[in-house]
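Summary for the steering committee. One of the milestones for this cycle was to obtain a three-dimensional model of the protein with adenosine-5'-diphosphate bound, which we needed before selecting residues for the alanine scan. The sequence and ligand used are listed below.
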Amino acid sequence: MRRLGGVPVFCFMPGQDQRGVSSVVIFQSFILNVESHAGSIETELLCNISVMPSNAVVDIIDLSTHVMNLPQVSGRQVERFAHLGIATVTDLLKHLPIRYEQEHGESSIGDLVMGVVGSVRGMITAARAAPAGRGGRQAKIEVTLEDSSGQMKLVWFNAGYLRGRLHPGMQVRVQGKVTTYKNRQQMVNPRWEIIEEDDQVVPNRDYLRPVYPATENLPSWAIEKIIGEVLEYVGGQILDPLSKATLKHHAMPKLADAFYAVHRPACEDDALGARRRLAYNELLLLQIGIALKRYDCRHRLTAHCLHFSEAVDQQIHEIFPFPLTGSQQRVIGEIRVDLQRNWPMSRLLQGDVGSGKTVVALYALLMACCDRKQGVLMAPTEILAEQHYLSISKMLEHSTIRVGLLTAAASEVNRKALLRQLGAGKIDILVGTQALLSEDVVFENLAVVVVDEQHRFGVLQRAAFQRPAVAQGVVYCPHYLVMTATPIPRSLSLTLFADLDISTIDKLPPGRGPIVTRVVGSDKSRSVYQYMLDRLGRGDQAYVVVPTIEDGISGPSSRLKNLRQHTKMLQEIFVGFNVASIHGQLKRETREAIMSRFRAGMIAVLVATTVIEVGIDVPNARMMVVEHAERFGLAQLHQLRGRIGRSGDGRKSLCVFIADPSTEPAKERMKAIGATHDGFKVAQYDLEIRGIGDFFGTRQHGLPALRVAQIPRDMNLLQLARRDAQAIVKADPALANDDHQVLRQLLVQQFGVDIGLVQAG
Ligand code: ADP
Ligand code: MG
């Protein structure tokens, strides 16, 4: 069981015994203190659903039955279904056709219609196997079929298995799409069967045949057959969470009818309406999950309501070495309102690389300090944590606020001392890496949590942090601010991040030097470094990024530039300049020393792996070269580029991506990164090139598994579902009304553990 301390999370776990039978449905809720939250949704649901007996042998087929227990499904097919992401009957029913093919009833060969799936019966008058590849596997079988109205050709490719099975004189019925080849009608890879003596002519009925996403070994027609049979069996068990009135209002069919219609539509419109209903249903459940979480946050969780006054505001501003931009002021205003409430803030702060998110975060942390509470800032890498620690310490040099740093690199002795101070309230702001998530990191009075570059953490960790503090018998949850330089497209912010409020910094601080980006082939690298030498001579500093430290994995023959060799090579070219290298595997002290020497200008060229990707801030570094840029992701390249152009004196910086892209996506990435410097545009390209699933890494980030609905295509439905969900949760947050019982049950059944991830937000 995951412990998510503090945050009420509900988690649905379809259990399975050795046979994979879903006979157990465990409903677990992670509320910190069940007693003190008596009467909450979770407790009620816990009572309601609880654990269903696992010894009850499942002999009826229901919506949660595993496909392996369906008599229609063979052992081999189970695996193939798994490939399609199908485990249970519910998954099966949600496996929707990608399209439909109009199929005509049986006709004569002369009446076949081009381009339509037709069906004819006739006699085979000729059959031959065209020469096959080795092993006979690629054999092509050609057959001539005749009836009284004419003749046509039938062709099967890769059909070695048909060799010798089709002979002249056989009566067969075939079905397939009618095409022409060399002016003759033909069907390619038609379905066929031998006609028995007593076989009746199939009535001439047209049929809209569903075409399912299939695999080579599990063809669409097999899926169609199984779904058709299963639907007959379980159709009556499908419960509808929507009232008649709602159905009428939205002009939607009943849920069970929608399942029938989507798999066996009478017409295309029928199928469209059904799909709309199913997508809405899915989105509604998701949105209700999110709305419940939000409701929960507001009504059941308590946070420190932080004191604020003009004096506090002025005090904080005096700490910053520069006046804040309008954008920064605005988002600080939004955060300030949240922090003065007695329920926890959940806010996402998005802003392009270099937009100045750190001071905004610091403002929130300082509001905690001014109210004698603690704040914590978590960064994804040690280098970034160190950098935050240094810059924050520097700004707070003349204040009484005490800042601590905790990373995995801390020695046991230092770590113990630090934790003691932390527990005693002698550290006001703690900066660190994921090492902060360890059980023994206990604050005296934690009020504000800031997580930098969220996209590098899983969603789960987002929740794991919220270990609440107890004061005078009240459980306090911290306010929570997540920062990202990867802007979230609106379609995603309504689903994946819908439980977070969003603030956006949309303008960079003034005086940023423009960055010129060039994408060149590796044949140009010599002149690129020649030019770098030029700029070094003028006092600039530079980064050179390579993909690996050593050439371990790719072997000696690989041409991949690595840190060690490349550093050596550059040291030879840049005579008289100090060339050093840095990577994630170095000891912290070593890294810190290198970074501070680079910052001080004692190192001219820093050869690095992507450890410098985020947060590093050295104003005089005005040139960057990224070797093998085609190997990096778009967001990563944009982050890397954000390390330069930080001088504030308006002078141009240069970023050169050296790349020899060979695949289409890689070429597109190179084109995109050269075309824009706008992080929001980069994110949009990224989404387009990679698709939603890869944008954040589906699993890691708990992207809800939408089976029917498609974002952004179903944005309108999403908005509708969102409004409805909010209204439902507002009116009946415990889902206690009789009207909502089915809804509640479906929430448990359908989401499985995934809702737990969404909830973890
Ligand atoms: P990011 O949003 O990428 O985390 P940072 O917070 O690291 O950006 O800020 C980038 C740089 O801009 C830092 O050197 C920071 O000191 C500087 N900066 C931030 N805000 C301002 C401002 N209002 N005026 C001038 N410089 C600023
Ligand atoms: Mg940053």
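Key point for the committee: The chain is about 35% helix and 20% strand.
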